[in-house]
Amino acid sequence: MSTAYKTVQDIAGPLMMVEGVSNITYDELCEVELPDGKKRLGKVLEAREGLAVVQLFESTQGAATEGTKVRFLGRTFEIGVSEDILGRMFSGSGTPIDGGPAIVPEKKLDINGFPINPYSREYPADFIQTGISTIDVLNTLVRGQKLPIFSGAGLPHAQLAAQIARQARVLTKEEVETEGKATYDASMEEGKFAVVFAAMGVTFEEAQYFKQEFEKTGALSRAVLFMNTADNPVVERIATPRLALTAAEYLAYEKDYHVTVILTDMTNYCEALREVSAARKEVPGRRGYPGYLYTDLATLYERAGRIRGKAGSITQIPILTMPEDDVTHPIPDLTGYITEGQIRLDRALHQKGIFPPVIPMGSLSRLKGKAQGEGVTRGDHSAMDAQLTAAYARGVEIRELAVILGESSLSETDKMYLTFSNRFEREFIMQDERENRSIFDSLRIGWDLLSELPKSELKRVKPEQVEKYMKSARKNAPALVS
């Protein structure tokens, strides 16, 4: 039986200072028994001879320096895993909250995981289809990539996250070879596909929305959900993404699943870090966040990837809300340094009623080149990406010019770009929340839109691609302006 210490000297927020301890290690779990007999779980944040700083996973309400007992358990925070976790929903501390039975674990894993040896990493190169045109064509998601979504308060990142979670999948060889004409059959995929979804600090309504979306669409059977709501303890919020990533690592590297991990909202996670840091009286960094924020985020983001010799993979989509839409804020700023690009949601598009409001300018997938082209999607994919982005950027510039000078001052070519940009927003960017477009449908829409422009303006696509794809995309379109 381990020793029960009654030497709690101070309580500050979610933290307890316990003196007179020995042989205590960092991250060790402990059981805190309150004066009224209730027991709560905590972990060691700081350990040195004679002193331990304990962080409780629940509120410290009812705790007192007199009568509180702390018993150290000699192990770290672990989660029990087996394939039975698929189709289940857990709290932010790993407890089932869907009314189902407790998981009978195949094994127990430390939630802190281990970094992937860079030498063992395999370069991400396989296309993942989300069913969203602006992501699939312009900011292609690659299996094993970490690609965050930068959002803002009031923007529909929750709906976008749910849509990606429902629709994300890997194309079959038959679909690529027949340009999407083959009927989808999950058994044809090279491996199994799963989604691990972690919500941190969300409202009760958002948590219910996510749950209902998974249940209504049948996606819950291939998903694992971890829900930490705003009324749950702050400290639990710090453990939630680590629980999710540990479950994903088990499915990917031991059960050969291709796992997409969606983490929302990383801003709430960072706020929890700041609150705990302030309680520990640490010297603050930028805007009050702890100086180790970059390192802490890296311990989460770098758990995505592919490992040489392993069939499975982890693709990570962290979602964060930028305070005041400020991309230079520490959270999006540091996230951008660690991850491989970003998908940016635009408030102006949202105000026009466009969903999803993904802006091509400001969004970037740094690894997309490996997942575009013959044998992966289609030979014209990369050229279409460049042409559509350039044409829309010019159309937006001309729209701003027309506001100042009037449309009558525009040349005929400028007017074509203006028409293109308006159609691009209505037909390419905008799609229904439940519309699941194949990459081939998205490319066809893109070719249809490019028929608005003169052939001489199509400088990023090859003439043979124009001849091959544009006619089939818009058979009834008027002749192109030469």
pLDDT under 50 segments (min length 5)? 181-190, 476-482
The number of strands is 22
Largest sheet: 10 strands, mixed
Q: By helix and strand content, what is the structural category?
A: alpha/beta
Beginning-to-end CA distance, first to last residue: 86 Å
User: What is the number of helical segments per DSSP (H or I, 4+ residues)?
Assistant: 13
Described by the principal axes of the CA atoms, the overall outline is elongated
> How helical, in percent, are the residues?
25-40%
Rg, Cα atoms, Å: 25 Å
What integer is the average pLDDT? 89
Q: Kindly estimate the percentage of residues that lie in beta strands according to DSSP.
A: 15-25%
Description:
The protein is an alpha/beta fold. It is about 35% helix and about 25% strand. It has 13 helices and 22 strands. The chain has helices at about 135-140, 155-165, 175, 205-215, 235-255, 265-280, 295-300, 330-340, 345-350, 380-405, 410-430, 440-450, 465-475, and strands at about 5, 10, 15-20, 30-35, 40-50, 50-55, 70-75, 80, 90, 105-110, 120, 125-130, 140, 150, 170, 190-200, 225-230, 255-265, 305, 315-320, 340-345, 365. Strands 9, 11, 14, 16, 17, 18, 19, 20, 21 and 22 form a ten-stranded mixed sheet that branches. A hairpin with a 2-residue loop joins strand 5 (about 40-50) and strand 6. Helix 2 packs parallel to helix 4 (about 205-215), helix 5 packs across helix 6 and helix 12 packs across helix 13.
